[in-house]
Amino acid sequence: MNYVVRLTDQNISFEANEKESILEAALRQGLNLPYGCRNGECGSCIATIKSGSYSYKAASEYTSQNKLENNHILLCQARASSDIEIEARIVDTQTKIAIKQFPARVKISEKLNDSVMRIILELPKTESLEFSPGQYIDLILPGGKRRSFSLANPPHEDQIIELHVRYYDGGLFSEYAFKVLKDNSLMKIEGPLGQFTLQKSERPIIMVAGGTGFAPIKSIVEYMLEINDPRTLHIYWGARVETDLYLNKMVNEWVNKYPHISYSPVLSDVDAQSNWSGKTGYVHEAVLEDYSDLSDHDVYACGPPPMIDAVIQTFPEHHLREENLFSDSFEIAKN
Ligand SMILES: Cc1cc2nc3c(=O)[nH]c(=O)nc-3n(C[C@H](O)[C@H](O)[C@H](O)COP(=O)(O)OP(=O)(O)OC[C@H]3O[C@@H](n4cnc5c(N)ncnc54)[C@H](O)[C@@H]3O)c2cc1C
């Protein structure tokens, strides 16, 4: 059954059926409502319900802990069960690329260190994946479960897909990626997804990556280099130990070649025997030690949820405006 969803402050309406989330319905019809993980975890898609009824497709952390108040609903989880009115903004990501499913073949899978695998997927010759730097894809696993991975290659390399996959002990996909996946294996992907993309601006940029959160940062930087974007870039990459900085050499090569790029690797787990002479501690603290006033900057942050939460909580205290902070949180899927 189809219902009408009306966005009250924009006077825009679209149809949603009872089998899809309101977010899925909006994206399917080209309406860019805000979202992040699409798992009911990150809270980016919270909207306010004005009238009508809905049900949740699965209990989320938010719903089970009753964190949603003041008529707030999670659009990635809520399905309309009547005509419905909501208050939600439309995001202008400067791109309207259709989301499609593709078959893809593993061209290369190689370990970048003990816990990160680079997987290069190749699309059929007749296909190319149009995307904006910083976006992600979903791998659709046998049985229909999904895992999201940021695209690490820039959009001009549109025949391949580069992923940086971190190993999780007991993790459904990462166990498979590290122990079973072979060259030429077939995968199903859907994309492009996500709203973490390079924005038009003339402001200098600070990039904050945590672990494999470096993947979309790499895509954005390589895109900026391709189009000769003149903005200055300061890249912070946080990791536990030095070997976790799995493409450290490549970033240092950028720094040596391009005077507008600087780089601060930051380690949180340095022991007494280490000869590490760089920054230590949490990566967001290292940024704030260098920049007490962020009012002139754009910040792009990507990585594990605790790092993103720390950035969102502390950077505004250092005068970073909400509209100048762009982030993607690597939430773990719930199923
Ligand atoms: C937008 C987005 C982009 C992302 N991009 C990347 C990326 O570029 N690179 C990357 O590495 N990751 C990325 N992620 C995270 C990624 O999608 C996966 O969540 C991650 O790889 C773990 O998936 P998995 O199947 O290996 O592990 P899962 O099966 O999801 O398990 C994760 C962890 O939970 C534990 N676990 C699982 N089931 C249980 C249980 N029943 N009880 C207790 N513990 C359990 C596992 O042992 C494991 O340690 C991204 C996430 C999002 C939302």
- Tell me the structural class: alpha/beta
DSSP E strands, number: 19
Q: What top-tier CATH class of the largest domain fits best?
A: Alpha Beta
Helix content estimate = 10-25%
| Total domain count | 3
Contiguous low-pLDDT stretches (5 residues minimum) are none
**What is the straight-line distance between the termini?**
27 Å
Oligomer: single chain
What ligands does this structure carry?
A: flavin-adenine dinucleotide
Level-2 CATH architecture of the largest domain: 3-Layer(aba) Sandwich
Written as H for each helix and E for each strand, in order along the chain, the element string is EEHEEHEEEEEEEEHEEHEHEEHEHE
Shape: globular
- Widest sheet: strand order? 11-10-13-8-9-12
Major sheet details: 6 strands, antiparallel
Per the CATH scheme, the topology name of the largest domain is Rossmann fold
Strand content: 25-35%
Assigned CATH superfamily of the largest domain: Nucleotide-binding domain of ferredoxin-NADP reductase (FNR) module
Let me know the average pLDDT. 91
* Rg result: 20 Å
Give a verbal description of the structure.
By secondary structure, this protein is α/β, with parallel strands linked by helices. The chain folds into 3 domains: 2-87, Beta-grasp domain (Ubiquitin-like (UB roll), Roll); 100-193, Translation factors (Elongation Factor Tu (Ef-tu), domain 3, Beta Barrel); 205-329, 3-Layer(aba) Sandwich (Rossmann fold). Helices cover 18% and strands 33% of the residues. The protein is built from 7 helices and 19 strands. The protein has helices at residues 22-28, 61-64, 172-179, 214-226, 248-257, 283-290, 305-314, and strands at 2-7, 12-17, 46-51, 54-56, 72-74, 78-80, 84-87, 100-113, 116-122, 136-140, 146-150, 160-166, 186-193, 205-210, 233-239, 261-267, 279-280, 298-303, 325-329. A 6-stranded antiparallel beta sheet has the order 11-10-13-8-9-12, covered by helices on one side. Strands 17-16-15-14-18-19 form a 6-stranded parallel beta sheet, sandwiched between helices. Strand 18 (298-303), helix 7 and strand 19 form a beta-alpha-beta unit. The two termini are 27 Å apart. The mean pLDDT is 91. Flavin-adenine dinucleotide binds at residues 37, 136, 147-150, 164-166, 168-174, 194, 212, 215, 328, 330-333.
